[in-house]
């Protein structure tokens, strides 16, 4: 390869820059290494430009990003036009132990009309105690374990539903618990993260936003997932 892109966000999900540097030393031709380590949503947009610049396609990237920006601007415009209330959210990146969300995900939540006061914007996700979640009492709960698709997440949900006072959560009482594909949140591709914002907007404010066919496949209400899982 002429160019190799690396990351240092999570050494569990993908190999890091140091490992990549060691590996490419064995190649007869040394490629250009381009590290990408975004911490927030704006960083992810800028990483897309960095990638395009390294490939000599900066103008293409700018046009692509402009289209994505229009999508997020449309969501914001609709939230303002409808005077949508700010929803109290929690998004879990892992179920056992429970991890809150970090890095760019809190910014996705904000762009969709919510706020996650248990999150760690721009930083790593961390273990969050159950009693803290009960006290926070989210209006909407989004379960998106890193690396899990919808089916795998459904299989793990009993770890949450069996916890003490699960049914006391406002999100549970009001049927506002959702399971979502991880790739809309924990994989920092600007296109998939914007899809995540669109999906979150549909979860937080279904009276305003309706998911298109593509987005609708990537999240499901927990009550629906229980029915579909039992029917399999």
UniProtKB/TrEMBL annotation:
Q: Record's superkingdom?
A: Bacteria
Gene3D superfamilies under this entry? Nitrogenase molybdenum iron protein domain (3.40.50.1980)
Where does the record place the Fe/B12 periplasmic-binding domain? 1-208
One Pfam family, short name please? Peripla_BP_2
In Swiss-Prot or TrEMBL terms, this protein is called ABC transporter substrate-binding protein
Q: What species is this protein from? A: Pedobacter ginsenosidimutans
């Amino acid at each position: 390869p002429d160019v190799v892109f690396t990351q240092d966000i999570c050494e569990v999900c993908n190999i890091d820059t140091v490992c990549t540097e060691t590996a490419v030393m064995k190649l007869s031709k040394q490629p250009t290494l381009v590290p990408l380590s975004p911490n927030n949503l704006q960083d992810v947009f800028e990483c897309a430009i960095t990638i395009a610049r390294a490939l000599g396609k900066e103008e293409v990237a700018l046009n692509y990003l402009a289209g994505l920006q229009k999508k997020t601007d449309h969501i914001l415009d609709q939230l303002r036009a409808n005077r949508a209330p700010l929803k109290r959210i929690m998004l879990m990146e892992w179920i056992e132990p429970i991890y809150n969300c970090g890095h760019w995900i809190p910014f996705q939540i904000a762009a969709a009309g919510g706020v996650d006061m248990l999150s760690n914007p721009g930083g790593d996700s961390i273990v969050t105690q159950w009693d803290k979640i009960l006290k926070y009492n989210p209006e909407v709960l989004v379960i998106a374990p890193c690396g899990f698709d919808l089916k795998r997440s459904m299989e793990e949900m009993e770890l949450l539903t069996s916890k003490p006072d699960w049914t006391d959560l406002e999100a549970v009482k009001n049927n506002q618990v959702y399971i979502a594909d991880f790739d809309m949140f924990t994989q920092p591709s600007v296109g998939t993260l914007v899809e995540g914002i669109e999906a979150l907007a549909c979860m937080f404010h279904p009276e305003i936003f309706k998911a298109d066919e593509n987005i609708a496949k990537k999240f499901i209400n927990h009550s629906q997932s229980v029915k579909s899982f039992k029917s399999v």
